[in-house]
């Protein structure tokens, strides 16, 4: 009897959840700690009237930054690590699906592991916002802005990490080259700003970079 190929392979999806699903759960726990738990603490604090957020990114800002730049790269590494492990590679390539479908499954599941924690965290923030008067902390538009920007940044980093992984074939090299590739535009911008002071009289590269570092 001939094998029937479908775009959605249950065995492959189960394998991805078992091997990489823990990263999605870890990301969800991290976001819960950085946003809902932090905001709940402020709500329960009697002195919370003196606390204001510039935006949702300012809540546990450094911790959120680490999550955004680390989780997508780890996802890309662990999703495609099967290519370097003979037993896992033999199992996946024994399934009645093409390599193209395997690649699509891996990429789509990666985006899913990034999107679901963001959606869950955003839903909890919406519940807080509708149940408690905390307009001075954040608004509904702040939530949508945080969700959209966070997912776009992580999707970009994940896509770059997958692209690098398809070229290198080494997990350690994949992670290293991903960060180098992502840092190149910032490095070129800092180099440009550093040389502009020799061309423009009165231009302060240190002042400009310090005040625009987050945007850069």
Instruction: Give the low-confidence spans.
Output: none
Helix content: over 70%
Mean pLDDT: 83
Say what oligomer this is: single chain
- Measured by DSSP, the beta-strand proportion falls in under 5%
Work out the radius of gyration.
Answer: 21 Å
Order of helices and strands: HHHHHHHH
How many distinct helices? Answer: 8
Number of strands: 0
- Termini separation comes to 58 Å
Q: What do these coordinates show?
A:
The structure is a single chain. With 216 residues, this protein is mainly alpha-helical. The protein has two domains: 10-169, no CATH class; 171-216. It has helices at residues 10-34, 36-44, 61-79, 86-93, 99-131, 140-168, 171-196, 205-211. Helix 1 runs antiparallel to helix 3 (61-79), helix 1 packs parallel to helix 5 (99-131) and helix 7 (171-196) crosses helix 8 (205-211). The termini are far apart.
Give the arrangement of secondary structure elements.
Layout: H1 10-34, H2 36-44, H3 61-79, H4 86-93, H5 99-131, H6 140-168, H7 171-196, H8 205-211
Key descriptive features of the protein:
2 domains; 216 residues; mainly alpha; 0% strand
Compact description:
The protein has two domains: 160 residues, no CATH class; 46 residues. Helix content is 72%, strand content 0%.
């Amino acid at each position: 009897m001939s094998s029937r190929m479908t775009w959605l392979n249950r065995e492959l999806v189960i394998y991805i959840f078992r091997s990489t699903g823990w990263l999605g759960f870890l990301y969800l726990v991290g976001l819960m700690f950085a946003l809902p738990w932090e905001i709940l603490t402020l709500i329960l604090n009697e002195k919370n009237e003196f606390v204001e957020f510039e935006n949702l990114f300012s809540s546990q800002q450094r911790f959120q930054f680490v999550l955004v730049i680390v989780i997508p790269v780890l996802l890309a590494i662990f999703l495609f690590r099967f290519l370097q492990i003979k037993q896992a590679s033999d199992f996946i390539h024994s399934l009645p699906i093409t390599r193209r479908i395997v690649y699509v499954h891996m990429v789509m599941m990666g985006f899913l592991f990034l999107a679901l924690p963001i959606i869950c965290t955003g839903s909890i923030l919406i519940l807080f916002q509708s149940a408690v008067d905390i307009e001075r902390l954040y608004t509904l538009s702040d939530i949508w802005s945080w969700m959209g920007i966070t997912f776009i940044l992580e999707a970009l980093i994940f896509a770059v990490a997958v692209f690098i992984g398809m070229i290198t074939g080494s997990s350690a090299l994949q992670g290293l080259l991903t960060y180098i590739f992502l840092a190149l535009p910032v490095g070129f911008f800092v180099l440009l700003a550093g040389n502009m002071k020799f061309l423009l009289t009165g231009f302060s590269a240190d002042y400009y970079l310090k005040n625009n570092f987050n945007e850069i």
